[in-house]
Write a structure and sequence with these properties.
Number of helices: 17
CATH superfamily of the largest domain: Aldehyde oxidase/xanthine dehydrogenase, molybdopterin binding domain
Shape: flat
Structural class: alpha+beta
Radius of gyration: 28 Å
Strand order of the largest sheet: 5-7-3-14-11-12-13
Number of domains: 3
CATH class of the largest domain: Alpha Beta
CATH topology of the largest domain: Aldehyde Oxidoreductase, domain 4
Helix content: 25-40%
CATH architecture of the largest domain: 2-Layer Sandwich
Strand content: 25-35%
Length: about 750
């Protein structure tokens, strides 16, 4: 790439070339105004050497070999182990808390209160106190010696009988009248076909590979924390505020999170466990490790909330949706918030639309974000409703969506997916009357919308070129397993025109430039332009050295293919870097604001299709194959992008068929808070998986990449539910789709 500074107005080509088997390119010309000094924009005409290819994770070998150090792996001489005493009461007040006996036990170095006498107890698992000692056996014994008493209050852990819950009959159907709306009533009366149904999803708990927690170490008033988190800088600020009484400020707190064993939305805060380990380490004057066990993970670190959803709608004689009425009720915890759901808005066009939502508080652990918060729940209800409405109208589900979807990108994706999946042939396979094994196929759309955030102040990246030819790219943002290091390394190597092996990406230390939390699919679109800008600035400095050495204009020097120079006057990369000297080229790039011009597409589109096989005698459902197509702006690393989509499908199978939190109404305690009784998808449950990455030049910044954490997770459960509907001829409107629900649906159908 040329090292010239971009001009004020730059013409670019945005859009995408025709998908395989399709004829029409969707390309447009745009004029954008990059910020002064930013790298020139990549667009649909850019020829890449590395971007978009299949590359292995740059940290894959370290992870596979065990050399990667997660917070769980960190250890220090004299390090103490810690645990938290948690409330057995679902609702009430702490009346007695005596810690002295626990503090006097052999091997116990620190005991701290996490709740004061008189404070409310809000759910089973609420943190009361924490203990640190030389090993976990002694700590467990000390926990037993803490005297905690409670004033119990009547509790409720069933949101369907909460104070503000709607009236529901014994079949789980909402029986309350819809609020009056003359326009909606008229639209439904004018429709040729109408439908009304109730849908429900259960709570899904977080099941990250690495549990919450970390290690804390004090040096005077300076605090270092190795934390399993999705937000290094957010946790640094959180802990600094919470520890102000220890003479701590933000500058004295360092967070390390180079490797994180997953988070999916549950690890944005340090949490009570993070604060507890810091307090214990301060009191004991020794390093402390506190990692939650699996039961604590299931019961105290948030969840994807359940929801009760009701939809009614209608279509006209041409099969277009003319009315869409939706109301939902969220399964929130004690906070009474966080249970909202989202539904697709691209099918309804000019229809009469109404939506409402209400969160219902119960005495349980409150929700936390989980990969596309609110979307998998709402898409399950909405997309299954659409299939039922299409069936009433006598229309194929795919044809129904092609008729109503208003987004051209997804229309192309629907047609491509149908051809690649073999939709028509699979749909036409009729189940023999009375057959035991039933087959069906279903589909669903996906959507997410986030094209990055420059941050306040702007997020940055450090790029260093050393005289031996090696390159560093550094960000303080965390790496929860999505491949951030690989993305940064690929962007840097592409911009510098060097072998990927020369680039070392480092993330997860707050001493480096700031990065966003790993949420909302924001990391890639926020950091990729900053990484490119940093490499672009470093390249300019190297080109100046090479230009002076070769006697050619520096602004015409090109870095490509491991060579630096102009025309026949070129140096190999290693030779060019020798000109740097002992002090490396060291620059900081930044994330500029998105271009003022409107992007080609402001969100991400996707489509998924699923096939299921159902044993009508036992009700057992098996997903046999799934296919998805997903866009994420510019595809930077195809293999990593595909792994995000395939992983979302696997999680979708688990959500659709297996996962549900079961609370004992009498005690408020979770009855299946371990992996023996909390079922998640295993290797034998996996279907045949395939995906196609749809690369789009959005033209919103110098790179044009969008995130992939959320988008593909939206569609999977809904596609599976629709496949079950097709196989059975009757819907199962309650996730997870367990054998008992299948048998009941078949019995009801007769």
């Amino acid at each position: 790439m040329n090292a010239r500074t971009p001009q004020e107005d730059v013409k670019i080509t945005v859009g995408y070339k025709a998908l395989p088997g399709q004829k029409d390119d969707r390309l447009e010309q745009r004029t954008v105004q990059p910020a002064a000094g930013d790298a020139p924009p990549w667009d649909a005409t850019t020829q890449f050497a590395l971007v978009g290819t299949d590359v292995d994770r740059v940290d894959g070998l370290a992870k596979a070999s065990g050399r990667a150090k997660y917070s769980y792996d960190v250890t220090f001489p004299g390090m103490l182990q810690a645990m938290i005493l948690r409330s057995p009461v679902a609702r009430g007040k702490l009346t007695v808390l005596e810690l002295d006996e626990a503090a006097r036990m052999p091997g116990i170095q620190a005991v701290v209160a996490l709740k004061e006498i008189g404070n409310k107890v809000r759910f089973v698992g609420d943190a009361i106190a924490a203990v640190a000692g030389v090993n976990l056996h002694l700590v467990r014994d000390a926990i037993e010696r803490i005297r905690a008493e409670y004033e119990r209050e009547e509790h409720n852990v069933d949101y369907l009988v909460a104070n503000d819950a709607p009236m529901v009959d014994d079949k789980g159907l909402v029986t309350e009248d819809w609020p009056a709306d003359e326009g909606m009533t008229a639209a439904l009366l004018d429709a040729k076909v109408t439908h009304d149904a109730t849908y429900r999803v259960e709570v899904q708990t977080h099941s990250s590979l690495e549990t919450h927690g970390g290690v804390a170490r004090w040096t005077g008033n300076d605090l270092e924390v190795w934390l399993s988190t999705q937000a290094t800088f957010g946790c640094r600020g959180e802990l600094a505020r919470a520890l102000q009484g220890k003479k701590v400020d933000v500058g004295s707190v360092t967070i390390h999170s180079e490797f994180v064993g997953g988070g999916f939305g549950s690890k944005f805060g340090a949490g009570i466990e993070g604060l507890a380990l810091c307090l214990l380490a301060h009191a004991a004057k020794a390093p402390v490790k506190l990692m939650l066990d699996r039961f604590e993970e299931h019961t105290t670190t948030g969840n994807r909330p359940g929801a009760l959803m009701q939809a009614r709608g209608g279509v006209d004689a041409e099969g277009r949706i003319v009315a869409w009425d939706w109301r939902s009720f969220g399964h929130a915890g004690f906070s009474g918030s966080g249970g909202s759901v989202a539904v697709p808005n691209y099918y309804t066009g000019d229809a009469k639309v109404r939506r409402s939502h209400k969160d219902l508080a119960i005495d349980a652990d409150p929700p936390r974000p989980m990969r596309a918060p609110g979307h998998p729940q709402g898409w399950f209800g909405a997309e299954l409703f659409l299939d039922e409405l299409a069936a009433k109208a006598g229309v194929d589900p795919l044809a129904f969506r092609l008729q109503n979807d208003r987004e051209q990108i997804r229309l192309d994706q629907w047609r491509f997916a149908a051809e690649r999946f073999g939709w028509d042939a699979a749909r036409a396979r009729a189940n023999a009357p009375g057959a035991r094994m039933r087959r069906g196929v279903g589909l669903s759309s996906a959507r997410w919308g986030n094209l990055g955030n420059p941050g306040r102040p702007a997020h940055g990246i450090t790029c260093r070129i050393h005289q031996d030819g090696t390159v560093e790219t550094r960000s303080g943002a965390q790496e929860p397993g999505v491949g951030t290091k690989t993305m940064l390394a690929v962007i840097t190597a592409e911009e510098l025109g060097v072998d990927l092996k020369l680039v070392k990406a480092t993330v997860g230390h707050t001493g480096d430039p700031s990065g966003p939390a790993s949420g909302g699919s924001t990391v890639t679109p926020s950091l990729a332009p900053a990484a490119r800008h940093a490499a672009f600035l470093a390249k300019q400095q190297l080109c100046e050295l090479v230009g002076k050495h070769l006697g050619v204009p520096a602004n015409e020097v090109v870095c490509a293919g491991g060579l630096v120079g102009l025309g026949k006057s070129q140096l190999r990369w290693a030779e060019a870097c020798k000109l740097i000297g002992p002090n490396p080229i060291d620059v900081r790039g930044q994330r500029f604001a998105n271009y003022d011009s409107k992007p080609f597409h402001g969100s991400q589109c996707g489509v998924q299709m699923a096939e299921v096989e159902i044993d009508a005698w036992t009700g057992f459902v098996r997903v046999t194959r799934m296919f998805g197509i997903q866009d994420c702006g510019l595809v930077i690393t195809r293999k990593l992008a595909e792994s995000q989509v395939l992983g979302a499908m696997i999680q979708g199978v688990s959500y659709a068929l297996h996962e549900q939190r079961i609370l004992d109404k009498r005690t408020g305690r979770m009855l299946n808070g371990d992996f023996l009784r909390y079922k998640v998808t295993g290797a034998r449950d996996l279907p045949e998986l395939e995906c196609h990455m749809h690369s789009i030049a959005n033209g919103h910044d110098s790179v044009g990449a969008a995130g992939l954490g959320e988008p593909p997770s939206v569609a999977s459960a809904a596609a599976i539910a629709n496949a079950v509907f097709h196989a059975l001829g009757t819907p199962v409107r309650h996730l997870p789709i367990t054998p008992d629900k299948v048998v009941q649906a078949l019995a009801k159908k007769g």
